[in-house]
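Record Riboflavin synthase, 196 aa.
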Amino acid sequence: MFSGIIADVGIIKRAQDRNGGLRLSVSTLELGMDDVKLGDSIAVNGICLTVVERLGYDFTVDVSRETLNCTVGLDRQGARVNLEKALRLSDRIGGHLVSGHVDGVGEVVQFNDLGESWLLAVRAPHALAKYIAVKGSITINGVSLTVNHVAGCEFAVNLIPHTLAVTTLNELKVGAMLNLEIDLIARYVERMQTSI
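=>
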């Protein structure tokens, strides 16, 4: 589990084909790798991945073809990515509970400077739209955010200067594709209301 509070922006140093999937080498300076062991989870752009190698400030993860088919942002060498280590039971949750299992890919339809913040509007896949609610939580490329507006399949969030300074969201443009994870609670509520 994660909280959606980004600890560092890393760089994909190498993306090697691995039987249809990828082996990624990611470099980070601020994540704090001293306590990371092989088998630990790190969210990379909101995608929970398992550390298979570690050397200094770099770590390596394997990405399956299935994960690549359901996400964006992992296949380009040199790409900047949002990073977060998995939570410990004693950690403060500053965002919301995030699984690191991307539910779908959205598209930026608006990204405007409002002065004190930026408005980010996203078109979500139709199947996810019903789970997105005003004042609810959503994860965009691993970043925990609060939904401020919903209209059909589109929703909007406001990004404060701090969020833009410490994540890759400051690089967005209209038409960019994003990893989306809806709030876990919405899925469980739906499941409880469904008869088996």
